[in-house]
Amino acid sequence: MSSGGRRRLALVAALALVVLAADAGVTSEYRRKLEATVEMPLDADVFRVPPGYNAPQQVHITLGNQEGTAMIVSWVTPSELGSSTVMYGGAPHKLELRAEGTHTRYDYFNYTSGFIHHCTLKNLKHSSKYYYAMGFGHTVRTFWFTTPPKPGPDAPYKFGLIGDLGQTFDSNRTLSHYESNGGDAVLFVGDLSYADNHPLHDNNRWDTWARFVERSVAYQPWIWTAGNHELDFAPELGETTPFKPFSHRYPTPYRAAGSTEPFWYSVKIASAHVIVLASYSAYGKYTPQWTWLQDELKRVDRKTTPWLLVLMHSPWYNSNGYHYMEGETMRVQFEQWLVDAKADLVLAGHVHAYERSHRVSNVAYDIVNGKSTPVRDQGAPVYVTIGDGGNIEGIADNFTRPQPSYSAFREASFGHATLEIKNRTHAYYAWHRNQDGAKVVADGLWLTNRYWMPTDDTN
């Protein structure tokens, strides 16, 4: 080969390396300390029972309709039924409004729940602080929340993004860091208590978990996604009703969203349209979830709620050996729909590590054409796996090698993320690992809206 040919070949090789480097993601070499993931002891202060006879405990709220003008308040009375009434108003000394709730109980193997109350507060004003109280006749407790702003294209809002939380010391760090970062509501992508990791699916661990998170979820809405640890399907214990504890404890506004089941639904919060999907309910063609999602995407109004966010538990894009490709069948069923809808962000849990993708899609493949590699697609969402809340099963430190080109950043650490929507065009996304100070951003980027400003925004 001539010297000129060798120089051209060297130049081509160098350019190829530059292209590959530009497309390469980051596998963070940071590792959390190697201590075991240990559950907090039952006498930990975060599990304490509130004082007073039959005092309401495990208080939590979620949106009660699609528009944010209703709130579902839930709590448990341990000793006797008591009252299902909630008094509420604009000041702690002026609880002039009244709502009557309902109650339920359930048995699970050798466990019987307390009295679980659910009460929907209606006709609330947007962007307003409300105080609310329950426990009348025994021990009254008072809390407060602020309703989200009226849905609109430039309504700012800050979401916390948490998944696979559990109730370990790491879980407590995750929740404390989120509280320090100050979100307005949490998008929770599934796996709450991990009660099923205990002998006989010890449902007392549902109670301890709800007391643990009360410090946040009693004061701001958490939007619930059902994960595999909510299934509690245990025929060996005679328990064959899926999601029994979760369904009794954590209602969702699914009817307001036109859904037939509480596990898939949608809400509109400020400038975001949030769609919750169920990884462990049927989603094949013509199933209720398939039909609902098809109709729901037609109802999304990007001029009013420009940010389209999708929640699920099992990730579609996951380069970790744990739960590898478990979300593939749902991806094949729905990915084209989300790309066509120009969804902005898809959040999942399940894998106990952190990973963020570039904007990619894998919708061209039809089994015979060989186009089976995800490609950059500016109409596609960013995929984030945020199943790193801190649960008892530990960290998922088993990333595949080499890192696939669609993966932008991944790290085997516990933490949480936030999404701060500024207006119709810009939002700031940040992931915080637990080993840093709460305000430190380990992975962050500005996102531009797929409907209003579909620029190349990932790195």
UniProtKB/TrEMBL annotation:
Cleavable signal peptide: 1-24
Annotated ranges, domain Calcineurin-like phosphoesterase: 158-354
Reactions performed catalytically: a phosphate monoester + H2O = an alcohol + phosphate
Gene Ontology biological process: cellular response to phosphate starvation
Gene Ontology CC terms: plant-type cell wall
UniProt GO molecular function: acid phosphatase activity; metal ion binding
All residue ranges annotated as the Purple acid phosphatase N-terminal domain in the record: 56-147
E.C. numbers: 3.1.3.2
InterPro entries in the cross-refs: Calcineurin-like_PHP, Metallo-depent_PP-like, MPP_PAP, PAPs-like, PAPs_C, PAPs_N, Purple_acid_Pase-like_N
Alphabetic keyword roster: Glycoprotein, Hydrolase, Iron, Metal-binding, Signal, Zinc
Pfam families: Metallophos (PF00149), Metallophos_C (PF14008), Pur_ac_phosph_N (PF16656)
Class of the enzyme per the UniProt entry, highest EC level: hydrolase
Domain Purple acid phosphatase C-terminal: 380-440
Family listed: Belongs to the metallophosphoesterase superfamily. Purple acid phosphatase family.
Name used for this protein in its record: Purple acid phosphatase
Protein species of origin: Setaria italica
